[in-house]
Amino acid sequence: KMHMMLQVRILFALVLSGFLFSGCLWFSHGRKVPSAVTSRPSSGVSVEVLGPDAIPQGAAIAFVPFTAGPGAEAGVLLDRLSLMVVKGVADALEASNGALRLMTEDDLDAADLVIEGHVDEFSSGGKLKALGIGKKQATLRVRAEIRDRKTNTVVALISGYKAFRRVKDADKAAYDMGQGIAEGLINKGSRM
């Protein structure tokens, strides 16, 4: 009987280990991926301009900092990441020699276009990372729309996904995402 109990415990431990290491943790099935972001572009950012004249050369764009979406908790860290995305956009547009102009949220009335969006996901690498199991990377996922301020019509869609090793790399990931957004707007908006 003692030998049988030992075999049951070993079998249980093996099954549990296999379950945990296969990535099939029961609580991970409840996570929902936002439907607006269906792919992970290799550059990390996708900008879809919805018409040939949607983003005219030299347009003034107001960037409203991203807010927390369904998979991100509002707070100081998320606010900082949102501002790092804005800084990445600002630096890239400044280097573009006037292809597009960035306006602040305060200058909304003077803008031609408005970028508004959400941080849909910000994860620090999983609940079991400290034990050596679970996700080995942190993630940042955003989605946004660019609207014509006068007509309120959507002229472009933005989605971004960045994975990085450590949470302390989140600022760089957000900044790089902002640079990718600006490059996508400049390339698709002024060369169509």
Structure characterization notes:
- The chain has 192 residues and is an alpha/beta fold.
- It is 31% helix and 27% strand.
- The protein contains 3 helices and 7 strands; from the N terminus they run αβββαββββα.
- Strands 1, 2, 3, 4, 5, 6 and 7 form a 7-stranded mixed β-sheet that branches.
- A hairpin with a 5-residue loop joins strand 6 and strand 7 (154-164).
- The chain is elongated.
- The chain starts with a helix and ends with a helix.
- Residues 16-42 have low confidence and may be disordered.
Q: Which terms would index this structure?
A:
about 190 residues, alpha/beta, 7-stranded mixed sheet
C-alpha Rg (nearest Å): 21 Å
Largest sheet: 7 strands, mixed
Q: What is the ordering of alpha helices and beta strands? A: HEEEHEEEEH
The protein's oligomeric status is single chain
Task: Outline the low-pLDDT stretches.
Answer: 16-42
Overall, the morphology is: elongated
The portion of residues assigned to helices is: 25-40%
State the separation between the terminal residues, measured CA to CA. 77 Å
Task: Give the strand tally.
Answer: 7
User: Would you tell me the structural class of the helices and strands?
Assistant: alpha/beta
Count of DSSP-assigned helices? 3
Strand content: 25-35%
Overall mean pLDDT: 76
